Amino acid sequence: MIPIAYPLSLAAILFVIGIIGFLLRKNAIVIFMCLELMFNAANLAFITFS
Amino acid sequence: MTLNLLLFLALAVIAIASAAGLIMSRNTIYSALFLIINFLTVAVVYLVMGAPFIALAQITVYAGAIMVLFLFVIMMLGAEKPKEIEQIKWQRPLAIVLSGAILVEGVYALITRVAVNVTTSPATEVLSDPKTLGISLYTKYSLPFEITSVILLVAAIGAVVLTNKSRKETGK
Questions:
Q1: Range 138-167 of B in CB contact (< 8 A) with A
Q2: Under a CB-based contact definition with an 8 Å cutoff, are residues B83 and A26 in contact?
Q3: Alpha-carbon distance B172 to B167, whole Å?
């Protein structure tokens, strides 16, 4: 199978991109979508561990 | 390089590219479509990792329901033109500094810790197939389940109350 570091680093990268988008965008809807991206990254981390 | 790993790397590149497109695109609808691509890619990653139920649940709930809701809201409210809100003058530089800090921190954590073996503790219960999940959700975890539904109900009521108040203020 895949070594566990790779999905975790993908989740970390997506989370960081979500945070950057969350801090830098002005439009409220895009901020909500970056929140969703962060949720998704955390979900990916959970599922990686399971 | 097994086929699984290669497939995962290709999917990871697509996911990261769509996330970058999400935060960089000027048009709100393009951002929503990029997020849909991201969700679908991550769902295929779940499939590659051997979790078919979660993959299909992600496609159905996230990409299907939530993103469709987002697109409806965007198109009904006309939010592609950003509204002029009052900005704090130092917000943008502070945001750039903070996001630069977390980017550096994330890259550092990735580079120094990628090779470490993560030991996974065995899960207390096998909850992978939907039937077991459903049974355990309704019997053993029924109290958290009910509390979660109460929280969702409170959130919905709060949303209605807040919009009702603002509608009264505009005199409708």
A1: none
A2: no
A3: 6
Q: What is the pLDDT along chain B (172 residues), one digit of tens a residue?
A: 678 888 888 998 999 999 889 888 888 888 889 999 999 998 888 888 877 888 888 888 888 888 888 888 888 877 656 555 556 667 777 778 887 888 788 777 777 765 555 544 444 445 556 777 777 667 777 777 788 888 888 888 887 877 776 666 665 5
ipTM for this model: 0.86
* Closest to B19 in 3D by CA, of B34, B1, B2: B34
Task: Give the integer Cα–Cα distance in Å for B18 and A13.
Answer: 12
**Which among A18, A32, A47 has CB closest to B49?**
A47
Taking any CB pair shorter than 8 Å as contact, residues of chain A touching chain B are 1-2, 4-10, 12-21, 23-30, 32-34, 36-37, 40, 43-44, 47-50
* Dihedral sign, Cα of residue B94, residue B32, residue B150, residue B124: negative
Full-model pTM: 0.69
